Amino acid sequence: MQARIDQLHPFGTRLAEFASTRVIVPLAVLVGVSLLFSVFAIYRSVHLQEALQREAEARAVTQGVRTIARALTNEVRDYAWWDDAVHHLVLEPDADWADANVGRYIYQSFGYDLSLVLDEHDRSIFGQVEGTSDPDAARDRLGPELPLLIAELDGHDRATAFAVLHGMDGLYATAAATIVPEAGSPLTVAAGGHRTLVFAERLAEEFLTDLGTDFGLAGLNFHAEPADPTRPAAVLPSLTGTAAAYIQWTPADTGRAQLFLMLPGLLGTILFCGIAALLIHARDRVYREIRESEARFRDISQTATDWIWETDPELRLTFVSDACQRSLELNPEELVGRPLHELLRPQHGSTTEARDVAELAAVGPFAHAVYRAQAGSGEDHVLRVAGKAVWRDGALLGYRGIATDVTAEIGALEQARFLAHHDALTGLPNRVLLQDRLDEAAARCRRRGIPAAVLCLDLDGFKEINDTLGHTAGDLLLVRCGERLRGCVRGGDTVARQGGDEFAILQTDIERPADVEMLCRRIVEAVALPFDLDGPAAQVTVSIGVAVMPEDGDDAARLLQQADLALYRAKSGGRNQYCFYEAAMDRQLRERRQAETDLRAALVHGGLQLLYQPQVDCVSGALVGVEALLRWRHPVRGMLPPAEIIPLAEETGAIHALGAWVLRTAFADGTRWGELHVSVNVSPVQFRQADFVATVAGALADSGLAPRRLELEVTEGLLVHDNGTALAVLAELKALGVRITMDDFGTGYSSLAYLHRFPFDKIKIDRSFIRQLGGRPNTQAIVRAMVQLGRSLAVPICAEGVETPGQLAHLRAEGCMEAQGFLFAHPVPAGDVADLVAGWRAEDVGKPLRLLTANGAEHSAA
Ligand code: C2E
Ligand code: CA
Ligand code: CA
């Protein structure tokens, strides 16, 4: 799959690799640094430019001042070092000449505002101001600094001086020169008679305007000190060496202009870089997403069982993903080029049956189309297919989709559906399905009067087989039994398993009433045959209860109940038989329900009673204990024996309350009888109750009866189905100090085995053995064996149901230690026990004994 994606973007992927952050970041840093550098360079260059500009401007201003200085100095020299000037200004002063040559003329030709001739005493002998002759005004106009300028000349021949003077009405560029003859002139000026010529030009607004125009400067003005330090200033030379004044101007902003010129380019570059970075970032993200989606796709296609297919417009496969190999064991490369329908065959009966992919995709993307495909192994697989047509620029490129192998899912679904209606062990229909079929049969019966029978079956003796041969054998027996039952019925009938060892049959093809009975007989016979359970053969029988429609009604649920009631009768009637439902059974059921209600009422309101029957020491005849025996004084039915009470209580659950009542009553009574033992019978159902030990301990504590005086009588039925729990409870009871007696010994299957599993404190031989004592010869041998067994285990033996002195004699002869029976006393109410104890005379016990001694002696003699 990787290869395929690479084919799709061969260049793109590599570019994506290249455009990784490892390249992008340094590149961005480089661009950033060079941008910064450019900005800095531009800033520097603008700054430099500005400095240069200012320098040039300052030079220009200085140049302007120097130009005027040079012009003034040149002019004043030209006129001062001239023979005519010596002649007319020094030797023979001539005002007209002066006015025409260095007065008005100067003003008019050169525009100098002021000219002046000073004598050797610095007195003004000639002067004009702006074309008007006035020597004093001219001199005054130049202010107090004029003498200093003249002093510069220091009376030298051929000297000139220049300075900007603070005149009366402003600054004056002033040049002065000593009036001397031309070189090689015959004229001479007497020493100390030198005169000076002065030309001055007022530096006014006009001067600044001209300066601004000539050098392209704006905002020019004079200042005594540079007022604005940010503005450039040029110095006007003075006589003292310090500045006479400053000219300031507004510098031209060439740097800023240049900046404005470059700024758009710079901003454009920054913008371009930003956009480029964004584009690269976006592209990077797109490629990262592509890479992630590739990885995702790769992971999915490598792990999922779903596979991807693509075809051309003619539905010929152009691509099949690798997962196809896992799912169908077909090589994807070999499939390319083959028609899609060769691989995916439409599944008939599915929701989108028998339609090809093109037809489905014509409507839009589709899912849940079901197809079949033959796997490499030849096995048929079921596939759920989703797909769509692929278009580009209005042209059909082909089809593309995903196939999911749902074979197992569908198999499981079918299995689940089957299990929901069938029993997992036998495969027979279960309760649910039976109920459905019963409802159908009942409906048929209601509409058209078609008869049907419901049979409830219960195996007799199944529990024993399960317990002795194990669950595997038990399960096998149920399976075989189910098979036999199926063999007994006709095709239309239903054999169902209700649970445990209970089955049910719905018989529908009934032609004559006798058909039902014949089926029952067939079943009883068939089940009774021995089963081969892969080893030991086993035998069970079956009890059947039958209800028939329409005779017994046409309500399915009710029929099942009736058949169950009949089954109860069949079982209680001796098993291995069938029994039809009769209306009388309903009455019995009602009676039973009534009895149950009565029993619960008796538990609350009284009516139950305990009788006590003495237990006697065989040798001394002494009274050693009493056994509590239950009676129920029923308001209608009179005094009822335990056989009428205990099973009812066990079946209805009342046994727990009843058992607790017996324990408390017996303990309370027992405390009044000195050291007599009190024996209490415990039902297995009562015994298995979780809090039984606690109940006993609580009753003991409440009554104050010493635990060693209590004997609990249990039957082996308790231990038959036990997995160790009952033994543990017995041990707990023993730990309380209570004694445990095994009751009815010899009536069960494996009493002997149980004797070894728990250290009982007493064994009671069942009265059926005692009754036959002296009658059947081998009974005596059995009793002897039991007594000897007790002796070897060091467990005392008690014989029940001793009615005759002869029986007692036999027991004494065998060495039996205790006895109980009508011979000694019938069970008596609690109130009579005290009298019984008081009037008990061991020798009385011996009386009938003596009568029989001869017999016994005869026996022992025989
Ligand atoms: P069991 O434990 O074998 O009790 C002795 C039964 O034999 C008593 O019958 C008693 O009346 C009877 N019996 C005593 N001596 C003789 C005799 O010489 N000859 C004959 N034929 N019978 C004799 P009962 O009272 O009808 O009790 C029947 C069974 O009911 C008891 O048999 C015992 O298993 C059970 N049972 C009695 N009381 C209770 C009880 O409170 N709880 C439970 N769970 N079972 C009880
Ligand atoms: Ca008993
Ligand atoms: Ca007994």
Task: Walk me through the structure.
By secondary structure, the protein is α+β, with helices and mostly antiparallel strands. It folds into four domains: 59-250, PAS domain (Beta-Lactamase, 2-Layer Sandwich); 307-410, PAS domain (Beta-Lactamase, 2-Layer Sandwich), CATH 3.30.450; 422-582, Reverse transcriptase/Diguanylate cyclase domain (Alpha-Beta Plaits); 594-857, EAL domain (TIM Barrel, Alpha-Beta Barrel). One calcium ion (CA) is lined by residues 743-744, 764, 766, 800.
Average pLDDT, to the nearest integer?
A: 86
Q: Say which molecules are bound, naming each kind only once.
A: ligand C2E, calcium ion
Number of domains: 4
- What's the multimeric state? single chain
Shape: elongated
List its salient traits.
about 850 residues, six-stranded antiparallel beta sheet, alpha+beta, 32 helices, binds calcium ion, Beta-Lactamase, binds ligand C2E, 4 domains, single chain, Alpha-Beta Plaits, disordered N terminus, disordered C terminus
